[in-house]
Design brief:
mainly beta, Immunoglobulin-like
């Protein structure tokens, strides 16, 4: 009997929740995000044999969220364009500060951040961070001021490392005391290596439907 692919991918059947540890200090202006191995996020996409080429970490405190990603296994330079950030290689983050998982169109509490390892500056080798619009959103979060998002990156022969900081003021409704759970989805997008995601892949409308995002639990030390 020949095997057939499942009608429904395993990651569609679950809403994954991942822990985001509290860190008193998240960002250093010289070193970037200070996130130890305990801040590493899982890649549930491996349940569907999706790519696994990056290590993603996350941490939080009352002042904001920090992320880091290390990509290895590349033979080509990252494809990053300031004019096309949503199509560029890098870390793409979707955050809902209210974790409203029963909506299919983004509210004003939903954010789409892009963190690119290159594409900026005169040599196009400087990292870029931006807040982009979510397709079909009912409302948009408040706009951010240029330079509010922090990003640092190092390009390497086989990939890159990147760290980013999203301050609380850049996220509409960010209130860890009253809302310690965030709707969350990440994708490390790479034209050479594919999409590494928290769960579902781009064949689903993950980039615009908060109902398909997971949960980021903002945990405190016991």
């Amino acid at each position: 009997m020949s095997s057939t692919a499942p009608l429904m991918p395993p990651t569609f059947l679950f809403r994954f929740a991942v822990s985001c540890p509290y860190k008193k200090s998240l960002w250093d202006n010289e070193k970037g995000a200070d996130l130890p191995v305990g801040c590493r996020l899982p890649n549930f996409g491996v349940l569907e044999d999706r790519p696994n080429f990056a290590e993603v970490r996350a941490g939080w405190n009352e002042d904001g969220l920090a992320f880091s990603v290390t990509v290895k296994g590349k033979k080509q330079s990252p494809w990053c364009r300031k004019s096309k950030p949503d199509e560029s290689d890098g870390l793409h983050l979707w955050i809902d500060t209210r974790a409203t998982h029963d909506i299919h169109r983004a509210s004003r509490f939903c954010h789409y951040f892009t963190m690119l390892p290159a594409g900026g500056g005169g040599d196009q080798r400087q990292p870029i961070a931006d807040l982009l619009s979510i397709n079909r959103a009912k409302e948009s979060p408040r706009p951010i001021i240029g330079g509010m998002l922090q990003v640092m990156a190092t390009l390497q022969d086989d990939g890159y490392s990147l760290s980013a900081y999203v301050p609380a003021v850049a996220m509409t409704g960010y209130d860890p005391a009253d809302y310690p759970r965030l709707g969350f989805y990440y994708a490390v997008i790479d034209r050479e290596l594919g999409w590494q995601t928290l769960s579902l892949g781009p064949e689903f409308p993950v980039t615009e439907s908060p109902s398909l995002w997971g949960t980021l639990d903002l945990t405190r030390p016991k």
